[in-house]
Amino acid sequence: MLSRVDSKHMRPQHGAFKPKQHKAFSTIPRQRRKAAVPASWMSRWKTRQKVAPPPTGIQTQLDLAGPLAIARERIRQAEKAEQEARREPKLILHKTVQVGPECVSVNRFHTIYTAHTDVFIFSQLPAYYTDDAGGPDHVRHATHAVALLAAAKSLRQPSLMMKARRNYCKALSAFNHALREPKGVQDDANLVTLFLFGLYEGGVSYSCSRAIQVIDGPRGKNTVDLQENVYPHGAGGLELFKYRADHGLSNEVDRGCFMYFCHAALMEFFIRRSHLTPLWLVLEMVETPWGRGPILEPLVRQVIAFKKGFDALSRAQNNEAEPGKKTSPEALSKLLREGINVSDNLAAAVTFLGFSNVSSCSGRQQKLFNGLFIVTGKKSGCIAKSHYRALKIYVLERIMDLLSMIKESGGQVDEDVGPVPTWSDGVAVVEEIMEDMRAIFGLEGREQSSAEGTAYRTMTMFWPVVMARTSCFAGPRNGRWISEKMLDLSSSVGFGLGLEAAAV
């Protein structure tokens, strides 16, 4: 048996050479240096909760959502987008509505021509216009022609001018076709179309470039031929009036249209100072339900009688067949006395209008200057007064001519004639018309007038403006002022005759 010593020495020798294990030095606390795998499931669960989440953007198998989660997420996003849409409304671009130039032009035409008018026939134009096939074609095309023409001139659009001409030709064709039918010839719309033809032809009667040249240079000597340029349908219009009167069709539309027809003929009668016009001679022979000839008030008839007397005297003075024959001083004095009397009556009429109210004592509205203008305010009163002043300018010019004739014949003015008008009286009347223009159109610091009825006021002031512009009493300064103002107003509304009024 071996001894304990021997058995001790017989142990494996390799154990003596085993390297000694040293524990590494670490600053980590002892609690964190425990085994990586816990011993119990509870420890494992706690350790799993402490594991850091994976980096952003990297999805693990547990993070992958199922179909139900995806549906919920989409619903949540849709609700969020709906809430944002409610907070900020979307910009909705509606489909473009195609509107032709006729529609816009007609609305503008009714605004500047028929709104706040004091002449009956102007106020009836919207009632006879229809933009569909329900009304007469000639009224619709004629309205389009006038509206497009006014827009073309004011906006300087040649393409609109071509459209206006095409509509005018369509209106003429439809109008001629309506007159051939038994029922069509009895329609009141024919009178409205005839009036619209006059508006159209008045708009195309002159060019703006020529008007500017005449204003910059010396005053023109041309006259306005309304029968040739504005009312070429004058004779046919009179035949239509007679036909309707013979068949008992005349009504207030006939009267309103006929009154303005007479006004246009009377305007031409005095603008062309030298002789009688063919249209006026035919008009005096027309039989209507309101009498023979034009509708005139007594004061205007006095002026016409004085004009006819002076024209006859001038023809006798310039008679080439009897060059030695002279008018007697007595005849000249008689005509002078008549002219002074008419001038005083015109001055009294203007004074009466200045002191009278808008309504008469009976409560009815006043109808002035042959019953054409219904006085409803200050502007309409100024328009009526300007027409009486236009007649007074003509009478004063003829009085100056008669005084020169009496002086050349060696005679003298009778003492019983009374106060004889002077040159300054004529200048004062021209300045009064200029003052009326300031009040009517809101010029030079006066109360601004609205755009409604601008073309109507420009058209109705055509006669007084022409009479003042071409008068010998105007002078260079006043004449130029009238021309410039009328040119601006007529250009803005596309009124061709107004451009001519600035140039003649």
UniProtKB/TrEMBL annotation:
InterPro entries: DHMBA_Reg_Transcription_Factor. It comes from the Eukaryota. Residues 1-23 are annotated as: Disordered. This is C6 zinc finger domain-containing protein. It comes from Colletotrichum tanaceti. The lineage of its organism: Eukaryota, Fungi, Dikarya, Ascomycota, Pezizomycotina.
